[in-house]
Amino acid sequence: MSGDDDIMGMNTEQGLATEVIKLLGDELQRVRDDIAELHRSEASMSTPIPLSDAGIYMMQEENMRLQQELKELAQRCMQAKEVVAAVRVGPRSRQLPAAGVALAHNLDLAQDDNIARMQSKLSANKEKYKQAKSGNAALRETITGTEVLLEEVRSEQDSACKRLRMAEAELLKLKENARVFSPTNFLSRALPDESLDTATALEGLVFQCGGERLKLSQNAINSCVPGGFISKDHKEVVWANNMETHCVVLSPTHRYDPKAAAGGWESPSDMKRQPGEEMDMFFMNKRKKWGYLGTYRCVGQEILSCRDVEKFAKSQVDSAIDITAVRGLPVIIHNAVKQMYANNVLKIACIGWQRVGFNQVLARVLRPERPQMTDSGQSSESAPAKRHRRDDDNAGKSSKRHKAT
User: Per the confidence metrics, is the pTM higher than 0.90?
Assistant: First the structure.
């Protein structure tokens, strides 16, 4: 610190000396100019001019006054030279003449004023810096709070978008439910196959279950789509085409079972299907073999009388009437049920299903469960479902020819 103070002191003394030299040099120049003017005046008065006594006396007085001013100027010049010599030779601590001391004192006062003014500005700048720093801290807090609020708004927006998508999906379902479903129009439409693997879906998976009721392992049940699975006999389904892209499933609106908890009459599970619901469909062909056809979506439902359904599905109507009452009941009850259908007391539900995919996970689980070879020695995995239906048709024609014979 002492070294820095010495350096600062030396710089201050050098600056002060420079100012003193400049001021004294100006003063010396003015003295020299005055002396030169006096010399010129003396030269002009050396010429003898006849004057009166009063004029001579006045000229003498003026000459004495000018000589006195010349002496004062010479003395001031000498003092200026001494000040300049003292400033150039020695440090500031050397004694200066009175004029130089006064000048140095004035310069010190001016320098102190400058220092005080600079310190005042420095303090003001420090205060501004503190205020700016405090303002920056408050601004950072505001920015942080705004970022948190923005994140909350984004999260709320994402939630709102999800709720909006769910509402749109629900609205779509409601619109689909509001549409009037016509089984005949649905069967006549040429709908595209929306399954991911059409070739695999057409091939299907045919396997033996050892009876007319579908039996699946727990692993296969767990592999089904979230909506579960549906199993139907060929007597309950009306297909729109050989590709099995869409169909209408017939089901009685009510079933009679004396042992049921509802007092005999109950609604079958098909009546609970809703448009948009997706399920894996298993289908039993005419040879009593079960096959997996793919994932189907419910597209609508309509309840019709027997006469209306007979216009496009005569054989399936008879099956729906037969399964209205459980097996093992007296014949009189079955006859009463048929009479109720004839009088339009009981009706038939027509549920439309469209294939929208093929569950490969379920297919991989089902493959080990089915026989590896068919009766003809060909792998059942490569036997298309269409071929099985053609064989069923041929078997039916052979049976009819045999009976005719």
Answer: no
